[in-house]
Design goal:
alpha+beta; Cytochrome Bc1 Complex, Chain D, domain 2; 2 domains; two-stranded antiparallel ribbon; two-stranded antiparallel sheet; 10 helices; 14% strand; extended; binds heme C
Amino acid sequence: MKKLLIILLLTFSFGAVANEAIELQSARIDLSNNESLQRGAKHFVTYCLGCHSAKHIRYLRIANDVGADPQKVLKDIAPEGASIYDQLHSAMNKHDAEKWFGTQPPDLSLIARSRGADWLYSYLKSYYIDTSKPLGVNNLVFKDTAMPNPLWQLQGEQHAEQRKTIYGEYTKLVIEEPGTLSEKDFDLFVNDLVNFLVYVGEPVQLERQRIGKYVILFLLLFLVIAYLLKKEFWKDIH
Ligand code: HEC
């Protein structure tokens, strides 16, 4: 029992330290925003599919869920030669990945559920120049990540600065070399991408919300019926 208590205490205290290390930025998730989901899907295929798959979802399902014409999804979102029935498969082969990165880029179908939207949003924005690393960059949220910054051309390059306040020291990332997008547009870009990954993590979410309304309506109706029945059954009993 004592051992268990110690283990529990240690787990919680390590959790607290991990949380303190870096404050995550909040993503604005809105799964009813079809335009954002469509943009996010396009960004995913353009910037992530080279290395990562999301094989739990097919292009056709995306078209249906985000209210887009399947032909348009094939033309504007899917890579050339893909079929509308294909899953989001990466062309990267395992051996090359191991050789280049020392590890395999994981499938991202469920990443938003395991890491959370804010973590993903912050991760993709937190690369900075670190010449001591093989890739020349490091990441504040995922230290020593083996993933090169896939969005550096859009965001530009950041360097890390130590800042001191009365509450203690913290690291601030400052843009050194601007990218092709302004800071505001880059935030929107990453937000759309994360919005899409949250959708991919649980595509039935949208449907569930729709069905949920009917279920509540039914329960309310049933409450009235049950109440009337109760009155009827008990009316002769005093
Ligand atoms: C050039 C190949 C490459 C591209 C392009 C790429 N990644 Fe990665 N990614 C990797 C590798 C390799 C890892 C494994 C990193 C590690 O374990 O240190 C990884 C890991 C990740 C992880 C962390 C998974 C985890 O929890 O361990 C996330 C999230 C991720 N990538 C998201 C993305 C997104 C979103 C994009 C598109 C904007 C993208 N990646 C583009 C190679 C890539």
